[in-house]
Design a protein that fits this description.
Length: 243
Amino acid sequence: MKPFVLLATRAEDVPADEEYALFLRYTGLAPDELRRVRLEAGPMPRLDLDEISGIFVGGGPFNASDPAEKKSPVQHRVESEFAALLDEVVARDFPFLGACYGVGTLGAHQGAVIDRTHSEPISVVPVSLTAAGASDPLLAGLPATFEAFVGHKEAISRLPASATLLASSPTCPVQMFKVGENVYATQFHPELDVDGITTRIHAYAGHGYFAAEELELTLTAVRRAAVSHPSRMLRTFVSRYAR
């Protein structure tokens, strides 16, 4: 089998390593079948799409809607690299699944309006499939509404005509969309479980996702409901596209 690739941008080793471990667990892939590239550490290597099965994108600290002058040199580089990669991915309709930061990368590439209108605190929210989502093969077997982990400062407030809306939540209208047949992005985190999001809550305390005095409230919020369905799409992605 040709390997999959995980493009990651987390600078902190503990949540970065756990993110990779979670993708391994829920895709069912072995380390040699899921190559990780930490983009915050250096330039994106050239990816020969003919030599890989598909691309995952993890979450990260970058916000596409930040003013250009507030973006770091690393963020500018990563955004430029993603833009070039997505030119080829979209043109070829190549298997791609971006989780959380995937909304910023694929959304920005397609001309979506990304702003802070529909941000969501770190929590569990009900995500509901649209008619297109209910019939999409990547979401096969998922209930019409399922619980998912979220936590984001920005979101898409308007999708371009090139995109198909697949899922929404009560406070965030674009929770998942696709371009073509094989290029997907989610606002929620399909890779996370309770232990994983707990690690991130502690790692990113002080990063503006919640006030210092809200740590315990945030930990309680992610335990309010069982989350088990979203991760199924990761294994489905692998079974659909492994070659």
